[in-house]
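User: What would this chain look like folded?
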Amino acid sequence: MRARHFIFILSVSALVSIAAYGAWLITSSRGSTAHTNLLTRNASKAEEMLLRAAQNEPRPCPKSDGIKLKESPETHHHKVILTWNASANDPRHEVVGYCLYRIATEIRPKWAEQCKNCEQVNEKSIDGTACVDDVVQDGVKYYYVAMAIDLYGRTSSLSNDTPAEVPPTADVRGPVKASSYPRCRKDNQLQ
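Assistant: Here's the prediction, encoded as structure tokens.
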């Protein structure tokens, strides 16, 4: 009888120990449950890429007060191919696109912080680093600037300006085919 009594006490003790250990596992781990751990964990690289792809829609560019050049027979002789360097990525402000502006002037402009009097080239951000401005006036000198825009619509400061002098005649010369680049305007207008 003593052996049976000893085995019974040992069995009950083991059962109580297992139950206590299970309860300790459930209540430990910094007081959080499996559900809250799931919500607060960092995403894997693959999950971050999928999330970015799903959210990487073009953002609206800040509006400017500049007058937009209307398309006319004098605006389609020449095209200005614009390329720029990608903005350095900051994890807090991940760049999703670029907004382009220009001003037509004979002298180098003094840029206001957000280019309020510039002509807005694209209404939606461009996700690449090149495009073709196909609405340019013959014989005009343009100065172009770009700004980066992040997922939340925050913009960078303006880039350095780049001049583009459009020839005064309709004669087109040059080895670069503008059709190999996306259009800055028509492909990036708000619907």
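The chain has two domains: 2-40, 59-191. If you want, I can go into more detail on any region.
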